[in-house]
Amino acid sequence: MEEENMVEGRRFHLTLVEARGLEHVGCFEFLKMKVYAKVSISDNPCQVMRTPTNRNGGANPTFTHHMTFPILEESLQSRRTRLHIELHSEGSAWTGGSKYIGEANVWISELFDAENEHDGSETKIVQVRKGAKSSRGELEFSCWFGVKGSFPSSAMYPTKETPGRHSRLAEKAMEGEAEGRPKRQ
User: Fold this and answer.
1) What are the residues whose beta carbons fall under 8 Å from the beta carbon of 145, sequence distance 6 or more?
2) Contact 12, 143 (CB under 8 A)
3) Which among 19, 40, 105, 183 counts the fewest CB atoms within 10 Å?
4) What are the Basic and acidic residues biased-composition ranges (predicted)?
């Protein structure tokens, strides 16, 4: 059996907390938006995670949903890797498919530097935008980075032959990391 390449990285822990003041995107103002978020890291567009749909929050949905992404160590210092969060309103039989609300983008290096400065998890509130338009609301999230470790390259860059496998591999490769907030090395 072929030995798999290992890469240096960390787990990036993200908790989407809530969004506030989102602009209504449906056809009918009287219908409440059913909002969900799709999250990815620009270095790894194959791994997109989705929150459960908030059916009651409308323009102010609460998520409190935790996600974990593998991230390369070199990405923590570069200004080319970003956290990408898209917000959508789930469609219905009357309104058609999901509607795009807007997105938020934050540099991973900025989050990593802020965590180091504050010696712990970082809570951020960012603007939700649609193209070059002004703010369409705001999004609150908290995040922290796990300890440095090694994991299989297939966990970072999955192929079409291994769909879904990358998340389990990253978890298994770094399962020695303690639950909760580990101490830095």
Assistant:
1) 10, 11, 12, 13, 71, 76, 111, 112, 115
2) yes
3) 183
4) 162-185
pLDDT in tens, 5-40: 888 888 999 999 999 999 887 666 657 888 999 999
Reading the block at residue 183, the tokens are 């101490």
Q: Long-range contacts made by residues 164-167, C-beta under 8 angstroms, separation at least 24?
A: 166/46, 166/47, 166/70, 167/47
Name the one residue in this structure whose structure tokens are 């890291």: 41
Q: Rounded to the nearest 10 degrees, how much is the dihedral formed by the CA atoms of 16, 46, 42, 10? A: 70
Q: pLDDT by residue (tens digit) across 74-83?
A: 888 888 889 9
**CA gap 27, 133 in Å, rounded:** 20
Give the residue from 28, 2, 1, 11 showing the smallest Cα distance to 170. 11
**DSSP 3-state assignment of 115?**
helix
CA–centroid distance for 68 within its chain:
8
In 3D space, the residue among 46, 34, 31, 39 whose CA is nearest the CA of residue 15 turns out to be 39
Spatial separation of the C-alpha atoms in residues 101 and 36, rounded to whole Å: 10
Could you tell me the two tokens for 162?
A: 């291994």
Q: Give the CA distances from residue 1 to residues 4, 5, 105, in Å, rounded to whole numbers and listed in that order.
A: 9, 13, 40
Pairing of strands 82-89, 62-72: unpaired
AA letter at 25: V
